[in-house]
Each structure stands twice: as structure tokens, then as C-alpha cells.
Amino acid sequence: MTDSIMSKAATMEIPINSNGDTGTLPEDDSLEQDLQQVMVSGPNLNETSIVSGGYGGTAEGIIPTSSIKGSNMHHSSSNSSMMAEEATRGVAVEKLETVKKWGLNTYKCTKQMISERFGRGSRTVDLELEAQIEVLRDTKRKYENVLRLARALTNHFYNMVQTQHALGDTFADLSQKSPELRDEFGYNAETQKLLCKNGETLLGAVNFFVSSINTLVNKTMEDTLMTIKMYENARLEFDAYRSDLEELSMGPRDAAAMARIDAAQQQYQVQKDKYERLRSDVIIKLKFLEENKVKVMHKQLLLFHNAISAYFAGNQQQLEQTLKQFNIKLRPPGADKPSWLEEQ
């Protein structure tokens, strides 16, 4: 290895004078010392170094590989930080644009709402659809009243059944402790127990009636009304952008104005498509709601009538048959569970 290095060093010693001719230069002691140091120590193959400052430079120009790795890691961490900052900045800009669009849309809709309220703005009107929506809202109010009264009836009847149950137990106890009135207390106790049993059966039927009305009013009708609310908001936005487009169309026709008109035309078309789509959804939901309402109420009103009639006629067999007809299962006797009213 030493002979190879010496041969390379001898080959590289070609002195050149200022005119470009070869000549003889004075011996450089520092060069010889560096060559001797290289010959003695030799390069470490396990550590690669980069020499800066040219051949024969000082040791300060030697940069270990470990420092380069550390520098690369530092640059990599710096690049990651910059990418994270750029991503955060992008999210912030996106949120700012969203808030800006929301603010502009809110301003337009508020302006349209105030104009309509004071009679200065025009609004899109669908007389037939709005009449159906008003009928639905009135129907919902009436059904909510039916639901409130049915719950009150169930609550009162539940208390009466509990009283009958307690009264039957008291009569049965007195029948055992009063020999002279045993028969009288006995058949009164049996009557109260029979009434209590029929009352629990009737409660099962009324409970099913209340549950079905509650689902119809607070889920099915409410879902349709939520779609109607979205439709009304879309109608307001549509009229707001329509009014904005009409105002721009009546203004000047320079290049900047035409650009604003084109942008307003695009926004108007988007709002129009949204309005027509929700209008179609409302019409479909109103149709299916009416069909569902008739079907559900036909079944529930028949159940309510048959159960009440059978109970007050004292027809236990018909009352039980009514529950079987509508697939109503009663709570097992003796189960300590709260009433349906307490659960709600």
C-alpha cells in the first residue's frame, strides 16, 4: 500500500512555472510531511472523510461522515417541519375560505329574508306544495294532542289497575281473617283480581297504541319536517342568489362586471339545482308519509276501539283475542319493571 501511495505521489509531482513550462520548484517541506503522515497512518477504510481546502490542507478541512449524517438528519427534520408548517398553513387557508364563503352566503340570505319580511323582495312560491306542508304541520299538532291525551289515559288507568290489585289483596286477606264475611270478601277479591287482569291486558293494547303514535309523530313526521326545513333554507338561498344575479344584470356591462355576472350565474345555477332536488324530495316524502299515516292509523284505531270495547263489555276472551290479532305480547305477571310511562 505504501509503494502505491509513493508511486502516485511521484507521478503527481509535475512542477509548472509561470509560463506554463515545466521547471524545478523548491522542495515543499509541508508536502513531504503530509506524505509521511499519510504513509504512516494510512486511510481508515471504516471511516470515509472528505477533505476540503485542497491537497495538503490542515486537519480543520476534514469532515467526518458522522457529522455529515447528523447534518442530513438535521436537514431532514427541517424539511419535515417545513412540510408540516405548509400543511398547517394550507388547512388554515382552507378554513378561512370556508368561513368567508359562509359569511357571504349568510349575508345574502339575511338580506333576502329582511327584504321578504318588509315586502321589498320577491320570493319563489309553490302554492300547492306549501299548502301540503301547512296541512302536515297542522296534522302533527293534532296528533301530538292525541298522543298527550292517550298518555294521560294510560297513566290514570295504570294507577287504577294498581289500586284494584291492592284492593283485591286486601279483600283476600280480610276473607281469611273474617269468617263471618268470608264469602263476601272472597268474591269481591276475585272480581278485583279479574278486573286487574283485564286492566293489564287493556294497558298492553293502549301502550302499543301510544308507542305507534309516538313513532309516527316524533320520527316519521319529524323526519319529513326536517327535509321541509332544508327545502325552505334552499329556497331562501336560491332567491338570494337570484336577486343578486338580477341586480348585477341591471348594472354596467364592462369586463369586470361581466366576470361578476358569470360567477353569479354559476352560483345561481348551483342553488337552483339544490332547490329543485330538495323540492322533489319533499314531494316524495309527503306522498309516502300520507300513505304510511293512513295505514298506521287504520290499524291503531281499530286496535284501540276493539280493546276498549271488549274491556268495558267485560269480554275477557275478545280482549285477549284483540291482542293476539295485533301480535301484542304482555309483560309476564310478577315482573318488577317500571311502567311504560316511567321508562319514557
Summarize the structure.
The protein has 344 residues and is mostly helical.
Descriptive overview:
The radius of gyration is 47 Å and the shape is elongated. The longest helix has 68 residues, at 182-249. Helices cover 78% and strands 2% of the residues. The chain has 8 helices and 2 strands. 15% of the residues are buried. The protein is an all-alpha fold and 344 residues long. The protein has a two-stranded antiparallel sheet.
Secondary structure topology:
Blueprint: H1 2-12, H2 29-41, E1 49-51, E2 62-64, H3 65-117, H4 127-177, H5 182-249, H6 255-312, H7 316-325, H8 340-343
Antiparallel strand pairs: 1-2
Helix pairs in contact: 3-5, 4-5, 5-6, 5-7, 6-7
Radius of gyration: 47 Å
What would you call the shape? elongated
Low-confidence stretches: 1-28, 37-69, 340-344
Question: Strand arrangement, largest sheet?
Answer: 1-2
Q: Please work out how many helical segments DSSP would assign.
A: 8
H/E element sequence: HHEEHHHHHH
Alpha-beta content class? mainly alpha
In angstroms, what separates the terminal alpha carbons? 95 Å
Count the strands?
2
Query: Strand percentage, roughly?
Result: under 5%
The pLDDT mean sits at: 78
Biggest sheet, open or closed, and with what strands and sense? 2 strands, antiparallel
Q: Percent range for helical residues?
A: over 70%
